[in-house]
Design brief:
With 230 residues, the chain is of the alpha+beta class. The chain has one helix and ten strands, in the order H-E-E-E-E-E-E-E-E-E-E. It has one domain (55-229). The strands form two sheets. A six-stranded antiparallel beta sheet has the order 5-4-3-2-1-8, covered by helices on one side. 21% of the residues are buried.
Length: 230
């Protein structure tokens, strides 16, 4: 007697529909695993970019406070010539942001026997980016020698990029209030350096929201240098 061949359902194999469903499920799982793995590789770079950006802002704030703290004025000016050095401390409303220019002992001499000293002119202000005019950069301007144009000249460098706003306020100890502008060349504040400066630097965070960094610094040399009074 001849044995009957087994039916298809008795052979233990899968239908084409079952195979297609299994492949689809495997593809979905593989895609999810790959996406999660790829995202995990992007996170360190993303966090590193955030940390580097915040580090740049903190370094910029620290540098501004240290250099402003070394600001000074001097009475040793020859009034008989227009080319005589001018010593100032000036804060003014600037578009965009604020601007501060001052004479300081903050110059760092890098080369031996260079005809330089620790005196210099320094300015901080915002300026549109060279490649993208819609962005703003915090600029540091320094001129090694103090001349009759204390708010112009020298070398510019970017302290922080992609800045939203830069605000400077000055503490007037006589009026007991924070004011927005100061100029030691004007009559009402002639040769009078403010006691304290407040700096606010606003940037966009990783989520596109404004983030403000705030600091204050006290100026050490409050009176103009006058060696004749010694």
């Amino acid at each position: 007697m001849t044995a009957r061949p087994p039916k298809l359902r008795d052979r233990g194999c899968f239908s084409l529909m079952e195979v297609m469903i299994a492949v689809a499920i495997l593809s979905i799982i593989s895609t999810l695993i790959y996406s999660s793995f790829a995202r995990s590789l992007e996170i360190p770079a993303y966090l590193r970019d955030i940390q580097e950006r915040y580090h740049k802002v903190r370094v910029a704030m620290d540098r501004m406070t240290s250099e402003i703290a070394m600001a000074y004025l001097s009475k040793h000016v020859d009034p008989s010539t227009d080319e005589a050095p001018r010593y100032i401390f000036r804060v003014k409303n600037h578009d965009p942001g604020d601007r501060v220019d001052f004479t300081s002992f903050a110059h760092l001499k890098l080369y031996e026997d260079a005809d330089e000293s620790d005196e210099c002119e320094i300015g901080y202000f915002l300026e549109p980016g060279a490649d993208n005019k819609d962005t703003l950069n915090l600029i540091r301007r320094e001129q090694k020698r103090i001349d009759h144009e204390p708010s112009w000249g020298g070398v510019k460098q970017i302290l922080a990029d992609d800045v939203v706003d830069f605000q400077v306020q000055v503490w007037d100890e006589l009026e007991k209030e924070w004011i927005d502008e100061w100029d030691t060349s004007e009559v009402e504040r002639f040769e009078r350096i403010p006691q304290m400066i407040a700096l606010k630097l606003t940037i966009l965070d990783e989520n596109g929201k404004e983030l403000t960094f705030f600091t204050k610094t006290q100026i050490m040399l409050r009176k103009p240098i006058d060696f004749t009074a010694l």
